[in-house]
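Question:
When you can, review this sequence-structure pair and walk me through the tokens.
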Amino acid sequence: MNFQFQHIHYAAFGIIGLIFWIISFFYILKKPQLFIPSKYKKKGIPILRTLVFAVGIAGWLHIAFALAGPRRPMGMDKNTIEVNDIFIILDLSRSMLAEDLKPNRFEAAKQKIQDFVALFPKDRIGIVIFAEKVFTLLPLSTDLNLISKMVAQIKIGPLGDGTNIGDALALGVGRLLQSLAKNKVIILMTDGVSNVGTLTPLQAAEMAAAQKIKIYTIGIGGAKDARIPVGPNMFGVQRYQVIPGGSVDEKSLKEMAQMTGGKFYMAYNNKALENVLGEINKLERTEIEQSGKIIYEELYFKYLLIGVLLLIGAELSRRLLLREGP
């Protein structure tokens, strides 16, 4: 039989029990109280006592086997789940530190992503982050705790200072190509104008449209007088500068959304993402097969019961048939 063991080292307790039982059975450590001359001792091997010994051995071996946690694989449990596949693409350019949203654009966006994850526990969510460079922070996942932890650890800085919207969108499209979900969605959250990268945002949007991937675009902030902190002056007073490059590229964000069947939202405050959540919640989810789990037949109790019954039988036979015991 094809057995697997959950904690095979526990079998040692059964073997120890067997050793002590053998010592007890043959009175190895017990001094004899009556000495019988050898000429009066019975010759040959007592059949009944040998049989009782074999039953006791079998009992302890079954108990040791049971303690090892035996189980037998019976097959795969194929689960299906209904999902939308959603990639959130978050801008990490330096302008996201502007404080026209509270506490700033970056932290407000992170909080909305956390809210999004909490509201859509059945959907598969992935995250791409970008500035000058682009990076897949997390592939599609339904692990809410993992997603929340990854979002909490996002920092501004490591990906440079530019705004590479085109390549970030293309990466999200590439990640969704293998998706079997009927509805594949990209949520782009940015506060700037694309100024670096191989592809333009519209070229990436054309790729998404060809793959029937909807892009929901969210312009974050956008106040013309928005400022970012640049550190304190020599007197310890915080200094600010007006964001280089001006406001959000609303025209391009609207075009990308229209090309793909998505929608554009302008987030002048901390509540705009709620509209996107409502739209996506109306989409029909697709049933897909989830990674299956192996189903096991647990054999612990069966072998433990057999072992205990054999051991009880051996001990009763010693006392009732062989007239042994304390």
